[in-house]
C-alpha cells in the first residue's frame, strides 16, 4: 500500500523589508517540468499493447483412440490447447514484439487490440529462443499506435515503472512498482541480463511492456519467481531493440561467434599458475576448449587461458562475456586481455564470425 504524505506550504508573514517595491527587471522564471502520472502513461500506452491468443493442435497418442482410424477413414481427431500472452506494437508496419514462449508451438496466432475487440491473425516474422523474443506482424491498418523504446542502461534501482498486459486473461491490466535490481541471471538462457521489478506480473503478462515514467518501453515482461510474490523479470529494452532489428532484416538473429568453451572461476584454487592468483581477485573465465578453425583458435587463444577483459571492460564471469558478445556484430573485432601461463598478461585481437548452425557445432553447453 502506498502512503501519501501531504505537504503543508508555510507562508511567512511579510515584514516591512519584504514589502519593498518590486524591481523593474523581474527574474526570468524557469519552466516547471511536466510530470506524467500513472494515469497519463497508461492512457497513452494502452493502445500500443495487445493481447495474444494462440491455439495449438496436436494428434492424440492415446492407443484407445485407434478405433477412430477405422471409423473415420484414418482421420484421428486432433486435440487443441490455448494460451494467452501480451505484446507491444513497435512500428507502423504492424510489427508486434512478444515472448517466444508465448507463441512457441502455436498453430494459429490471433491479436486483440485495446480499441477493437475483433481478433486479427498474425504471422511470425522471426523468433529468437535464446533471448525468448519473437516478432509478429499484422495488417498495418490494425496496429497504428507504436510505443517508443527508452534506454534501459540508464535505469537505476528504485526507478518507478508500470507494467501493462493480459494477466490471467484480464485485458490491458496496469500495475506499478519499481526496478528492484538489474543484471539478474535466472538460468533462462546464455544472455540472461534481466531487470527485476516488484510490479505485479502474472501468467499472461509475458511479452507486455515495462514502462518508465516517461512512458517509454524499458523492458519486456518475461518471467516471475515461483518462490514468492513481487519478484518479476523483464528483458532490457536495449537487448530487445537489437533482436527486433535482426528479425526484421534477416528473420533470425545473427550472433557473433568466438568459438570457445568457457568455465567460471569458483575460487583461486581453479588457477594453477601462482602468478595468476595475484591478478587482483577471482574474475574472468577459463578457456577449457576451442572450436577448430574458429575465430578464437585462429587468433591464437589456447586452452587454459584466463580471459579477464574485452576492450576496456573487465570480464566478471562467463555470463558477462556472453552478454557482451551478444551485443556485437559477426563482422566486429574484439581485443581480449588474457593471462597465459608462463607468459603473463597478453592482448589478442579476434575477428568474429557468424554463429554456425547448431548441427555443425559440438554439443557443448557453454560454447559461444
Structure description:
- The chain is mainly beta.
- It contains six helices and 21 strands.
- It has helices spanning 38-45, 67-71, 100-103, 237-250, 295-299, 318-326; strands at 49-59, 78-89, 95-99, 108-113, 116-121, 123-128, 133-137, 160-165, 173-184, 194-197, 209-211, 217-224, 232-236, 256-257, 260-264, 285-290, 306-310, 313-314, 333-340, 344-351, 353-354.
- The strands form four sheets. The chain has a seven-stranded antiparallel beta sheet with strand order 5-4-1-2-3-7-6. A six-stranded antiparallel beta barrel has the order 8-9-10-13-12-11. Strands 15, 16, 17, 18, 19 and 20 form a six-stranded antiparallel beta sheet that branches.
- Strand 19 (333-340) and strand 20 (344-351) form a beta hairpin.
- The longest helix is centred in the middle third of the chain and has 14 residues, at 237-250.
- The chain is globular, with a radius of gyration of 27 Å.
Q: How many strand segments?
A: 21
Q: Tell me the count of domains.
A: 3
Under CATH, the topology of the largest domain is which? Pdz3 Domain
Give the CATH superfamily of the largest domain.
PDZ domain
How would a crystallographer describe the biggest sheet?
Answer: 7 strands, antiparallel
Query: What is the average per-residue confidence, as pLDDT, rounded to a whole number?
Result: 83
Low-confidence parts? 1-29
Amino acid at each position: 500500500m502506498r502512503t501519501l504524505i501531504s505537504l503543508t506550504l508555510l507562508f511567512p508573514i511579510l515584514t516591512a523589508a519584504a514589502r519593498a517595491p518590486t524591481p523593474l527587471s523581474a527574474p526570468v522564471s524557469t519552466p516547471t517540468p511536466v510530470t506524467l502520472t500513472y494515469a497519463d502513461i497508461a492512457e497513452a500506452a494502452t493502445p500500443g499493447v495487445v493481447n495474444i491468443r494462440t491455439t495449438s493442435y496436436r494428434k492424440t497418442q492415446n492407443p484407445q483412440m485407434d478405433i477412430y482410424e477405422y471409423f473415420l477413414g484414418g482421420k484421428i481427431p486432433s486435440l487443441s490447447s490455448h494460451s494467452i500472452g501480451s505484446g507491444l506494437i513497435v512500428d507502423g508496419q504492424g510489427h508486434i514484439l512478444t515472448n517466444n514462449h508465448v507463441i512457441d508451438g502455436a498453430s494459429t496466432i490471433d491479436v486483440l487490440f485495446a480499441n477493437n475487440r475483433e481478433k486479427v491473425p498474425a504471422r511470425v516474422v522471426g523468433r529468437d529462443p535464446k533471448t525468448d523474443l519473437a516478432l509478429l506482424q499484422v495488417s498495418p491498418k490494425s496496429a497504428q499506435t507504436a510505443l517508443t523504446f527508452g534506454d534501459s542502461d540508464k535505469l537505476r534501482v528504485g526507478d518507478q515503472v508500470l507494467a501493462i498486459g493480459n494477466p490471467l486473461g484480464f485485458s490491458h491490466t496496469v500495475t506499478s512498482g519499481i526496478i528492484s535490481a538489474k543484471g539478474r541471471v535466472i538460468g533462462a538462457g546464455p544472455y540472461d541480463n534481466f531487470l527485476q521489478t516488484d510490479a505485479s506480473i502474472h501468467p499472461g503478462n509475458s511479452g507486455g511492456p515495462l514502462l518508465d515514467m516517461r512512458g517509454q518501453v524499458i523492458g519486456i515482461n518475461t518471467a516471475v519467481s515461483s518462490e514468492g510474490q513481487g519478484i518479476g523479470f523483464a528483458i532490457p529494452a536495449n537487448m530487445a531493440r537489437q533482436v527486433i532489428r535482426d528479425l526484421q532484416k534477416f528473420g533470425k538473429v545473427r550472433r557473433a561467434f568466438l568459438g570457445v568453451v568457457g568455465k567460471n572461476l569458483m575460487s583461486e584454487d581453479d588457477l594453477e599458475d601462482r602468478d595468476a592468483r595475484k591478478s587482483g581477485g577471482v574474475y574472468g573465465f577459463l578457456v577449457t576448449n576451442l572450436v577448430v578453425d574458429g575465430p578464437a583458435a585462429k587468433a591464437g587463444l589456447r586452452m587454459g587461458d584466463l580471459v579477464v577483459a574485452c576492450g576496456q571492460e573487465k570480464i566478471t564471469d562467463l555470463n558477462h562475456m556472453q552478454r557482451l558478445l551478444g551485443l556485437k556484430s559477426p563482422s566486429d573485432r574484439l581485443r581480449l586481455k588474457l593471462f597465459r601461463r608462463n607468459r603473463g598478461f597478453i592482448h589478442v585481437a579476434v575477428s568474429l564470425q557468424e554463429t554456425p548452425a547448431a548441427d555443425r557445432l559440438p554439443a557443448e553447453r557453454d560454447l559461444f
